[in-house]
Amino acid sequence: MPNIIEIHDLDLPALEPYRCTSEVQLLRYYEPKEGIFIAESPKVIRRALSAGYEPISFLVERKYIDGQASDIIAGCGDVPVYTAHSDVLTQLTGFRLTQGALCAMRRKALSDAAELISGAQRIAVLEDIMNQTNVGAIFRSAAALGFDAVVLTSGCSDPLYRRAIRVSMGTVFQVSWARLGEKNNEWPAAGMDRLHKLGFKTAAMALDDRAVSVEDPVLQAEDKLAIVLGTEGDGLAANTIARCDYTVMIPMQHGVDSLNVAAAGAVAFWELRKR
Fold it and tell me: What's this model's pTM, rounded to 2 decimal places?
């Protein structure tokens, strides 16, 4: 039987995860245990549930209770479903809900990066990418184009932040991911060594004198390949590029020198996917 609760008090303690709470506060919600995250929209919530994430509660616009979210609510037993009209929910959260539904969910313990990628053939490595939209878009491309995993350096934005999840359309729950070390000084030296010991050749997406085209058949022929993507403004660090086996560029026209990191990732994933 659905546990539907009408919201009459915006200060209800159970609504705290939705009450303009910052992403960092959610991440540390149950510290030292894993925290929580917010999944937004019925499609994204379904993907999170299918991936085994545990719902804590739902926040659903009233008209969606018997609409797009009805199957989700029916399948989650007595998990609390807090509801009100759109203007009340906007007042609570500080933004208008996408398709009228949010779900607070428990995080899982992070996988060990080495265990996660030991059997992989194609992975993406994200170096210090802080823009949540770009992180989400990269995950979406990685999922669509058959990459086995995404590995993030310690300075990279969390893929389970709400905007990253939404932009990815929930594919962050379909692509395996892990952190490559928890300290800044573990990358690139120690992190790159771990990738090489696991049999990966590393390909830095960057422009320099030794860059080869992303269409180079030598790259496609590699059995295990890690594509390394850098931060939005400065790109990859020079010492990261120097430690990679390849530097790879995307041929451009009309005087364009580079693409947005998410767009560059999509092109590279397509061209270098395992066939």
Answer: 0.93
Quick one: pLDDT band at residue 106, thresholds 50, 70, 90? Answer: very high
Number of other CB atoms surrounding residue 125 within 10 Å? 31
Is the per-residue pLDDT at 183 higher than 70? no
Instruction: State how far the Cα of 99 lies from the Cα of 105, in Å rounded to an integer.
Output: 18
Single out the residue in 68, 86, 106 at which a domain terminates.
106
Dihedral angle of Cα 185, 188, 190, 194, to the nearest 10 degrees: 150
3 - beta bridge partners? 80
Domain that holds residue 228: 113-272
**Residue 230 pLDDT > 70:** yes
Mean pLDDT along residues 113-125? 96
State percent of the chain over pLDDT 90.
81
Distance CA 227, CA 190 (A): 17
- Do 47 and 124 share a domain, yes or no? no
> Does 10 share its domain with 96?
yes
Sorting pLDDT into bands at 50, 70 and 90, what band is 98? confident
Give me the DSSP letters along 111-142. PPHHHHHTT-SEEEEE-S---HHHHHHHHHHH
Do 99 and 117 fall within a single domain?
A: no
What DSSP element (H or E) covers 143?
helix 132-144
Residues 58 and 35 in one domain: yes
- Report the CATH number at residue 19: 3.30.1330.30
Query: What is the Rg, in whole angstroms, of the alpha carbon atoms belonging to the chain?
Result: 21
Cβ-Cβ contacts under 8 Å for 97 (sequence gap 6 or more): 40, 59, 61, 86, 89, 90
